[in-house]
Amino acid sequence: MFVGTGYIKIRIYEAYSLKDRRQVLNSITTKLGNKFNISIAILDKGELWNVAEIGVASVSASTKMLESVYQKIEDILDDDYRFEVVCFEVEMHKEIQG
User: How do residues 64-98 score in pLDDT, each as one tens digit?
Assistant: First the structure.
């Protein structure tokens, strides 16, 4: 069993208020959450309207499946015109047998 964790930092274009920021982030989390079997959370405190940090986690029996999921997530995010992906980092963790 493998766990993949991802850290995503985005710069939101045309976010002039927390409401604008929240609309974009809710759209992202809903879209990714419905499309993939992942856990997703907004990590930052929302101090900057045009920058956001998102955490993603997923579990799979194979690293190839996890790599595929995270590549698809990155592709979807790159195709969205409302923001720019500043940082996209993924780590794979193997389950430790006790």
Answer: 999 999 999 999 999 999 999 999 999 999 875 65
Which structure tokens are listed for 34? 């419905």
Map out the domains of the chain with their CATH numbers. Answer: 2-93 (3.30.70.1120)
pTM (2 decimals)? 0.90
| Residue for token pair 């923001």 | 83
Nearest to 44 by CA among 3, 87, 76: 87
Q: For residue 64, what are the contacts with CB-CB under 8 A and spacing of at least 6? A: none
d(CA 76, CA 5): 17
Cβ atoms of 42 and 48 within 8 Å: the answer is: no
Residue appearing with tokens 């047998």: 97
E-state strands within 23-95: 39-42, 51-60, 83-94
Which of 66, 2, 48 has the alpha carbon at shortest distance from 74?
Answer: 66
Residue with tokens 């996209």: 88
